[in-house]
Amino acid sequence: MKRWLLFLCTIFLWGNAVAFNDVAPDDPDRPVFEHLRDVGIMGAYPDGNFLPSKVVTRAEALVISLRAGGIGIPEFDGTTPFSDVNPNAWYAAHVDRGVELEFLATESGKFRPDDAVTKAEFLAFLFRATLVDFRPFFGRTKGIADDIPEEAWFAPHFAYAKKYQIAHLPADNKYNPYKWLSRREVALMTFRQLRIFHGDAVTKNFLELQAHVQQFVTLQRAGKTEEAQALLPRIFELSDSLVLLRNDEDSVAAQAISRAIKHIAESVRAFKFGKNLSALEHLFLATNHSQRAAEKSGKLSPFATDLLHLVDESLQNFINPNRKLYSE
Predict the structure, then answer these.
(1) Which helix (H) or strand (E) holds 102?
(2) Would 107 be classed as within a structural domain?
(3) Range of the structural domain that residue 259 is part of
(4) C-alpha 241: how far from its chain's center?
(5) Same domain, 69 and 172
């Protein structure tokens, strides 16, 4: 409850900030940037720019993560275990707090505050600050992605990130854990994690469903039908649980999304065996369910739109058999 009150009070205090100079009105991520500004997690620079493409440093990443977790910064006494952290630096107190909370290892004696933060490092900062419980993922880190070794220190972080699509897994099945992150990427990951951090069990199920639908669309569009269909049991399970736990427009839309995906999968199977009429019937039903989902829930509307695009691509492939089933 205290966390929610702090969250809402911060929104009130920051809510009248002006728009960013360098973010277009039609930028799809603008609402995310504005929300993070309004809650005091990521704001504009003195010149009014957000700088979405700017690479984030380790110091900046730590500060953003601590703010996301609502972690207070006590008065700093000026001492630090890191030889490369200036006690007068704007982030020094945050680094000290990170050490106090055991977010940071001090054995090397260096924090490298000005180095670009990697995806693995940022997720570690963010998930520690937002109190993620990794116990369900211990011993279950095999096959997360092609470039995430199951014994890697960051494997549980990416297992969690994959479950909720905090970091989107592309169709090439590579997370690129050592990739430097831009402010846009950091903002999106932070926003996704905040929804879980401030949500309840139902919210987590809803977000996991969104994550699986997004991954289904990604894999299906890349022509990885078997991998996409492997997600179906969990998608159906989550959508059914939402209907049982909550009778509202979001749960109705989730059920419609689930049915649309089932019909898309059936259409792919029918096309494969030359049952074109049956495939077209399934695509027609998928369209109806996707449209119903879009009408019922603004939260699921983007996913419903993606499914409609998949249906259209399937129809185009039927008209022109020389095309790939799904565009890259």
Answers:
(1) none
(2) yes
(3) 201-319
(4) 21
(5) yes
